[in-house]
Structure formats: structure tokens, C-alpha cells
Amino acid sequence: MRKVVLVTGANSGIGLALCERLLAHDGQIQLCLACRNMQRAEAARLALLASHPESQVALLQLDVGSVRSVFQAAKEVKLRYNRLDYIYLNAGIMPNPQLDIKAFFKGLFSSNVINMFATAEGILTQKDNINSDGMQEVFATNLFGHYLLVRELEPLLCQPDSISQVIWTSSSNARRSAFSLEDIQHQQGTEPYSSSKYASDLVSVALNRRHNHQGLYSSVICPGLVMTNMTYGILPSFFWSLIMPIMWLIRIFTNTFTLTPYNGAEALFWLSLQKPESLDPLAKYHSLTSGLGKNYTQPHKVSEETQYLISSSLTQPQHHILASNFSFITCYFHAKSA
């Protein structure tokens, strides 16, 4: 039986690289590229079929930042397929990035340079916007739209006597310091990208606690430092031309500089080869590349502080903020779309 795989944000970068790797490994899968821009999605589809002409590659219009689009896309998926084996939640945005140039150059010539590039801690902020649904745009796109998609596709993901996987693309920029349960949309802060990625780590654990007994397993990956359109958008192009030689030099001494989308997709691809029930639900799986260019995946256990936050937000009634907020927002939009 052909496996059914859905990938959001599949028309470029890590998403497209993942699709290429999946088809190279198993050309029999039914691959669905879920993208906002259908023109770019069709170009990606044709590129994949040029390399794998016998493969089944379908398109799905999906803007995870729009609740209406998520509902419509989920409805379409349920009409096309009777099951889902893998859903890769890879789409994401980082709008209006603001780089602290002074802090950047200070860090560039310090012992903290590797961590600075890997996490962007202390040098990168973003200015978020309100979307058409009245939510913070980054929260809606990077987290809530994906969460809603999974909830809507539960009938396909939670099939009797079958196993399915939900795999989130998180980030090394996902930091506890940027996240607050009392402000899950990050309306009051300046690091919505970091907040949304940290929240996806929490939601993945929540999905495991809710659905493992139904055969649905959720995992989170970190692609490392990858040069994608999002990354290039942080600095002017001439700036990257100046610092890229430094970055390739640093790569010799660290394994977190994956740099290419193919390398960054390593953990995503690796997870497709594992038995989901054998994976650690409290681990983030990192794509790593050695100084000699060898790709591999390594799990990193979430911190004790994060484990406590997960436990308190999901099990203690007085702190049941994460689950209750998501349930409230989901119910609200269900009623609105009815």
C-alpha cells in the first residue's frame, strides 16, 4: 500500500529538499505538496517529477496563516485520501526581521559566535502583524494553523490498527525566554518567531499525550543553521556575500551549521525511517553535519524547565492555559465558519 505523505511549505527550501529525499528513497509514496503559492508549488512539482517521472505528486492549496484556508484544505484532503501516514508541518514565516548590527559584529568576533549564528539570541527581533482572522500572524502561521490542520485531519491520522506521524520543523531559535503561557500569541513581545517555535515543541508533546494510544505520534526537529529564503531575508545580499566564507570556516568546528536545505532536512527524512513508537516524545531531533560533510541526526532531550512547563500547562487545572486557549480558539473558528 502506497504511503500518503503531506508536506506544508513544500515549494522551496527544506520542504522541497525533504520531498526530493522522500521520493529518492521511495518513489511509490503519494506525495502532497501543501503550499500557499500555487504557481511556485507547480514549479516544485514539475521539478520533482523531472527527477522522479513515475511518482505521484499532487498539489494542495493551503495558507496555514488563514483559518478558512486550513478548513478548506483539510476538507479537500479528506475527500482525496482515506488515510495519512506522515504530515510534515514545515511552513513558517519570520516577518520584518530586525538585526542588531552592533550586537552582531560584537558577537562575530567573540567566543559566542557559533551560538549567536545557531540561535540568533540577542541579535534578532521581528515586528509581527495582525492577520485577517484577528490573530498574530506568526502565531497563526507557524503554530496555530498547523495545530488546527492536525485536529481537522484526526480521522485520517488516527486510523484503527495503523501508525501515523506528525513531524514539526522547529528551530534552534526556539527559546523558553521568548515564550509565555499568559501570552501564547506573543502580542507583548518582540520575538514571535522564537515564541512560536518553542510553543510547537510543547504542542508536539501534548499531541503525544493525547493521541499515542490511537497510533498517532508527534516529533519535533531542528534543521540547524540553513541558508533558505527566510535566512537570506534577515540581511542584505551583499552582507551574506561578506560573511558566508566565515560561516563555511566555522562549520569545520561545529555540527549545527547544516547550511544547505538538503542537509537541514536530514532529521525530517531520518524520522520517516524510524518506528514512531520507539522515539522519545521529549526529544528534539537535530539535523547535524560534520566538518567533513557527513549528515546525521541526534536527539536532544528538552530541558527540565521545559518538561516542568509541559507538565504544568497540560495537567494542572490552574495552569491549563495552553490547552484551554487552543481549544477556545478552535471552537471559535469552527462556529464562525459554520
Automatic annotation (TrEMBL):
Catalytic activity, EC: 1.1.1.210, 1.1.1.270, 1.1.1.62
Bilayer topology annotation: Single-pass membrane protein
Main location as per UniProt: endoplasmic reticulum
Protein location: Endoplasmic reticulum membrane
Keyword Kinase among record annotations: no
Transmembrane regions: 230-250
Superkingdom to which the source organism belongs: Eukaryota
GO biological process, one term: cholesterol biosynthetic process
The reaction(s) this protein catalyses: a 3beta-hydroxysteroid + NADP(+) = a 3-oxosteroid + NADPH + H(+); 5alpha-cholest-8-en-3-one + NADPH + H(+) = 5alpha-cholest-8-en-3beta-ol + NADP(+); 5alpha-androstane-3beta,17beta-diol + NADP(+) = 17beta-hydroxy-5alpha-androstan-3-one + NADPH + H(+); 17beta-estradiol + NADP(+) = estrone + NADPH + H(+)
Family, per entry: Belongs to the short-chain dehydrogenases/reductases (SDR) family. ERG27 subfamily.
Subunit structure: Binds to the short form of prolactin receptor.
Protein name: 3-keto-steroid reductase/17-beta-hydroxysteroid dehydrogenase 7
Organism the protein comes from: Denticeps clupeoides
